[in-house]
Specification:
There is one protein chain. The chain has 19 helices and 20 strands. It is an alpha+beta fold and 619 residues long. The longest helix is centred in the middle third of the chain and has 45 residues.
Length: 619
């Protein structure tokens, strides 16, 4: 993914990470990221600025996109950096949420997979299909439970990267916390360490103690590395860190953080006990709103701490919340006549129902249309009320979904939970289906509209087709010879990844607007321009290949972002000889960036004059 096919987004000045559905970029300079251009890329559902990050919502394919971005950065000679959290000042809430997200996300999918494994294993035991006395159960339970049991050890690795500490020393500290002999002594009265009373707790499955411990480890290591002689530093630093940190964690950090986490968990439990319907309504109604803003990461540690005790009541109402929004998306898919929306809503609803991955549904369907989101909130709140009264919760970390239901089978009033979820789905679906799908007007609906009044004074009409017609001509931005898309000497444009395109080997350096509309992107270097056409067609004009490296030399921009232009108006004057002298290809590319929203886009062939038809768009 690139910024108007220039340097990779954030290359050299950002970290690039990903969550299950988002590419997260921590940029030093937000102004260099072209939000409109990123949104126009095929496969991008939405762009969100949250937690001090530039987040690109993609969906289930985000790991593949992340790998491609990192690969592009490396090919460009840029070494991707780890997220150290030192990029900018954030509010305490933003900092905490971003910290938890950054540390947990590398193991999130394995954690969800192991949780689902454990949920199905417990279902087999509950239904009497497998006995806990068998060797098979012992082996399968170890396989499904080990990741959560040794969670501190696994979290030590990303935490060490985050806080610039030695990863293996961090793992050793975490290993001490879950060492079998210490686990067996947990909650034993009268323990002392060097004469100091020791409150030894069970740190298996814990999250906060190891994060705080590794944070302190980083400071201690930097202090020791600064003052220890180089002859003994390499082995003395880890020796002293282990000697100091393990007792410190066991005597202070561990008990304090566990007591705080336990207090928060007890507060949540108390709220669900005192007013289960209200607590359930809040969680069920607002969970997906938390997801939109990334605030749900602040609740994940509480869920994990509760799961350490075998049951997370905080996760109970989330099942109805997720399925209610999924149902709203399904209703849009069944009711809408918008082909592009139907193409997005179908897979998004399926992913949300089956796997609990709701961001494509939320950002691509429900949030833009508003009413499906609101109706999903209503359904989620109703489902949450039932879940709260039923005492619903999970026994494993799973994404709330149909395949995650086995994790909910320990709910005290299971039928009541299922009734609530069913009502949540029904309410959300029906409200959306009958009142929540308002398609934009299509050309067919123009027949029922009153004819527009004739203007008193005729004005010149730009060479584009009005919005209610089926064909739009996109003009050539420069005179020259047309090059088929597959023959463009750039893999991104040639593949059609950015939309249907055509290249032009220019005969002069005057670049003009191919359509009338608004300039939504204008690179400071003058090599690329994005225009949102008045006819609904969005185009990108890219002058030369890899010319971003010229840093504006030879380019004279005539327009700026925000300008309104007419078809044929000059965008830039370019020195073609300067481009050739710098060793770059002068081929100028015109791309319809919203190609997926069109019925078809066809390119002309042969020679063309500026502003003559180069692409035919059927809408």
């Amino acid at each position: 993914m690139t910024n108007n096919h220039g340097r990779p987004i954030g290359a050299g000045d950002s970290t690039v990470t990903n969550t299950p559905t988002r590419l997260r970029l921590d940029l030093k300079d937000d102004a260099r990221a072209d939000e409109a251009a990123v949104k126009a890329l095929p496969g991008v559902i939405a762009v969100v600025k949250a937690g001090g990050q530039f987040q690109v919502v993609i969906g289930n394919d985000v790991p593949l996109v992340h790998a491609e971005v990192v690969s592009a950065m490396e090919k460009g000679g840029v070494q991707p950096t780890e997220d150290t959290g030192e990029k900018r000042k954030r509010s305490p809430l933003d900092a905490f949420i971003e910290l938890v997200s950054a540390i947990i996300h590398p193991i999130l999918w394995p954690l969800a997979g192991a949780g689902l494994f454990k949920a199905f294993l417990q279902m087999f035991v509950t239904f009497g299909w497998l006995s806990t006395e068998t060797t098979e159960y012992v082996v399968l339970n170890a396989a499904s439970d080990s990741l959560l049991y040794f969670l501190p050890v696994l979290l030590a690795i990303p935490a060490a990267k985050r806080f610039k500490a030695n990863q293996y020393t961090a793992v050793a500290i975490a290993g001490a916390l879950v060492y079998p002999s210490l686990v067996n002594l947990a909650n034993t009265d009268g323990l002392t360490l060097f004469g100091i009373p020791l409150l030894l707790m069970n740190y298996t499955s814990s999250l906060i103690p190891i994060i705080v411990a590794v944070w302190l480890q980083g400071y201690l290591e930097r202090f020791l590395n600064k003052y220890l002689p180089s002859a003994i530093r390499n082995f003395t630093t880890p020796l002293l860190v282990l000697l100091i940190m393990v007792p410190v964690v066991l005597l202070s950090v561990g008990p304090i953080t566990m007591i705080i986490a336990g207090g928060i968990g007890d507060g949540v439990t108390w709220l669900f006990a005192a007013a289960p319907w209200a607590a359930g309504a809040i969680m069920g109604g607002l969970w997906q709103v938390f997801v939109i803003f990334g605030l749900h990461w602040g609740l994940v540690p509480i869920m994990l701490e509760q799961l350490a005790d075998g049951f997370s009541i905080l996760a109970g109402p989330v099942l109805g919340a997720v399925l209610a929004q999924s149902a709203a998306t399904l209703a849009v898919f069944l009711r809408t006549r918008d082909a592009a929306m139907k193409e997005l809503a179908g897979p998004a609803a399926l992913s949300a129902f089956l796997a609990g991955i709701t961001e494509p549904a939320m950002y691509g369907v429900n949030l833009p249309r508003r009413l499906p989101l609101y109706f999903g909130i209503v359904g989620g709140a109703i489902g949450g009320i039932f879940a709260g009264i039923a005492g619903a919760g999970t026994t494993a970390f799973v994404f709330p979904s149909l395949i995650g239901i086995p994790a909910y089978l320990s709910t005290p009033s299971l039928p009541l939970l299922f009734i609530g979820v069913g009502i949540a789905v029904a309410v959300s679906f029906l409200l959306t289906f009958f009142w929540g799908v308002r398609d934009p007007k299509t050309p067919d609906s123009a027949e029922t509209q009153p004819a527009p009044e004739e203007p008193e004074v005729a004005e010149p009409v730009p060479p584009i087709v009005a919005e209610d017609v089926t064909e739009v001509m996109v003009g050539a931005p420069v005179a020259g010879h047309l090059v088929p898309m597959a023959e463009i000497a750039d893999a991104v444009f040639a593949s059609g990844a950015m939309g249907t395109a055509v290249g032009i080997v220019p005969s002069n350096g005057t670049i003009v607007a191919p359509v009338a509309g608004k300039v939504v992107a204008a690179m400071p270097s003058g090599h690329a321009y994005g225009i949102k056409g008045a006819n609904g067609v969005e185009v990108l004009v890219h002058i030369g290949i890899d010319t971003v490296n010229m840093k504006g030399e030879g380019f004279t921009p005539m327009v700026a972002k925000g300008d309104v232009v007419e078809a044929g108006q000059v965008l830039a004057e370019v020195d073609l000889d300067a481009i050739r002298a710098a060793g770059y290809d002068t081929t100028t590319i015109i791309v319809v960036t919203n190609t997926p929203k069109q019925k078809s886009v066809e390119a002309a062939t042969g020679d063309v004059a500026a502003n003559e038809p180069a692409l035919l768009v059927r809408r």
